[in-house]
Design a protein that fits this description.
Number of helices: 16
Structural class: alpha/beta
Number of strands: 20
Bound molecules: flavin-adenine dinucleotide
Distance between the termini: 48 Å
Radius of gyration: 23 Å
Length: 544
């Protein structure tokens, strides 16, 4: 498989043998952690597998990659100077623009000198007597630290499909999450793309413009709304900059990390005409939250959700000329229960003569062959195959590291029936290990920069609390953890989220336990709970 230009030698520096905090990952989480740790005069190293900062936006360089939260909202709030000086160009920036932002932050706060790039962390073990973690890297280095923070991202452990014959294929293959830094020119090629989640929806229209022929293999269709992306206007940038403090506060108190009007009506208490006018407005606005928060009950009532689902189905049928293709593109699960997408010309792309949709529910893939993809009815030949097959989400990057807590307890074993955390931040048996946006926190159901900043601040306040009170370690009790896991499940059970076979449920990874992993109670509510835990002297944790 062609991957990014990341096969360079390891970081030439040797990390220190001992620091206060080891951080894994130099995406937005790890970068902010490092900045704050320096402010607390704690020594830290950050280990990062990639060659530069940016995390998601370093790896996912596939054509069309964009954020689907607006730039002025998908940005750090911790520095007013940064907020004021940074100039975003687009409403929904492309991957290069977000990567530039991450690089600017790294330069501005001089972060790189404590980040060891090209360095994958492979193992970490807790020494109970010393109350320290020893963290090991792929290059054989070992660093001992009091605190160990996994800032490894919810969507960073990429996933290939489990199809027989993957290695047999003779043409070029690409995974959207490991896109070559130098780009790929598909001109004149017959291309197959497997997967129609966010990465597929974003890349398909762009690849279709280049390739001679593009065949899309779809198992589960995505809901997608037009992004209506555009350059930001100077007046809207100025207005946001003048009001940033109030906006950030509203983000923190909101449901999704994005301030939106709070719905007051059920979708079922208004006329069909009124409802469709509201959905139409959301469709025109190019905003996912606008449709998801249009009514009080879209995430909780199947009947209410069906009205939004019918609206999107109608749109798909209006746009896509071939009725069978349109039908195949219509999702059968409730809107919003798998991550919906924002696109640029996604459905329109299926009207192109060089684009073909294969519905894998009718003709499943049997194997990858030397020449291409064999489905149950025929073989397709390609010059290149793109795997837009996503991630082992939320837990993959955590369990990929051999993390051993007290008594050698492995996190993989502790989580064999699904992740078990307290607040999505810590796990019983693993003292002084913290996770940023871990399973059991709002994470992927939110504007993640808001959730990242909240977790980093909470974790560092906890570390500070230990230091000021002469304490060495903290660890959740099993009771507090069990109660939190029950609470996360209970909240999910009030919603329609578990009804979709989504990566939030672990459904894209064969053998992974089906558990709805994020906390669906909303960013604002969640923050209150975390703050209450801290205010009560870290209730639910054993401090020693
Ligand atoms: C295609 C795509 C689109 C997205 N769009 C949005 C969006 O619109 N809105 C939104 O809020 N969020 C979005 N996200 C989620 C996005 O991941 C977060 O917004 C945010 O960038 C996560 O930052 P992070 O630092 O927590 O994790 P990441 O950015 O994933 O960074 C984690 C880093 O840890 C490193 N790492 C992992 N394991 C190891 C190891 N063992 N050793 C060393 N290094 C390791 C990885 O290399 C990576 O660089 C998107 C994600 C993807 C993949």
């Amino acid at each position: 498989m062609s991957v990014s230009s990341n096969n360079q030698s390891s970081d030439p520096r040797t990390p220190p043998a001992s620091v206060d905090v080891v951080v894994v990952g130099a995406g937005f989480s790890g970068m902010y952690l490092l900045h704050r740790l320096r402010g607390m005069n704690l020594s830290a190293v950050v280990f990062e597998a990639g060659t530069d900062v940016g995390g998601t936006w370093y790896w996912n360089r596939y054509p069309g990659a964009r954020v689907d939260v607006e730039s002025l909202a998908y940005s750090y709030s911790f520095s007013e100077e940064l907020e004021q000086e940074y100039e975003w160009e687009e409403r929904y920036p492309t991957q290069p623009e977000i990567l530039r932002y991450a690089q600017h932050v790294a330069d501005r706060f001089d972060l790189r000198r404590d980040i060891y790039f090209r360095t994958r962390v492979t193992a970490a073990a807790y020494d109970e007597d010393e109350a320290t973690w020893t963290v090991r890297t792929e290059h054989g280095d070992a660093v001992t630290a009091r605190f160990f923070v996994m800032a490894t991202g919810c969507l960073s452990a990429s996933k290939l499909p489990e199809i027989p014959g993957l290695s047999r294929y003779r043409g070029a293959t690409y995974h959207t999450a490991h896109w070559p830094h130098e780009g790929v020119d598909f001109t004149g090629m017959r291309v197959g793309i497997i997967g129609t989640g966010s990465s597929g929806v974003q890349s398909i229209p762009v690849i279709a413009e280049q390739a001679a022929d593009l065949t899309v293999f779809q198992r589960t269709p995505a809901y997608s709304l037009p992004a209506r992306n555009r350059k930001l206007r100077p007046d809207e940038i100025a207005e946001m900059k003048a009001n940033y403090r109030a906006f950030r506060q509203a983000q923190r108190e909101s449901g999704f990390g994005l301030p939106t009007p709070i719905p007051t009506k059920s979708a079922l208490e208004v006329s069909e005409e009124e409802r469709n006018a509201v959905y139409e407005q959301a469709w025109e606005a190019g905003s996912l939250v606008a449709i998801l928060t249009a009514y009080t009950d879209l995430t909780t009532s199947q009947e209410a959700n069906d009205t939004a689902k019918a609206f999107v189905h109608r749109k798909i049928h209006e746009i896509v000329k071939d009725p069978q293709t349109a039908q195949d593109l219509c999702p059968d699960y409730p809107l919003g229960t798998k991550r919906p997408c924002l696109d640029t010309n996604y459905y329109e792309t299926y009207n192109r003569d060089n684009v073909h949709l294969v519905n894998l529910r009718r003709t499943p893939i049997v194997e990858i062959t030397e020449r291409g993809v064999r489905c149950s009815d025929r073989e397709y030949e390609f010059d290149a195959i793109v795997y837009a097959t996503g991630f082992d989400a939320m837990t993959g990057a955590l369990t990929n590291v051999d993390i051993r807590g007290k008594d050698g307890l492995s996190i993989k074993e502790a989580w064999h029936a699904g992740p078990r955390t307290y607040l999505g931040i810590a796990s019983a048996g693993f003292p002084n290990l913290f996770m940023i946006t871990g399973p059991g926190s709002p994470s992927v159901l939110s504007n993640m920069i808001v959730s990242i900043e909240q977790h980093v601040d909470w974790v560092l306040d906890a570390i500070d609390h230990l230091g000021r009170n002469g304490l060495k370690a903290m660890e959740p009790t099993l009771e507090a953890q069990d109660a939190w896991v029950d609470h996360v499940n209970e909240i999910a059970s009030y919603t329609l989220y578990p009804k979709a076979n989504s990566w939030c449920m672990g459904a894209n990874v064969p053998g992974k336990p089906r558990v709805f992993m994020p906390y669906a109670g909303g960013v604002g509510e969640y923050r209150k709970k975390c703050d209450e835990v801290a205010a009560r002297g870290y209730e639910g944790f054993v401090l020693s």
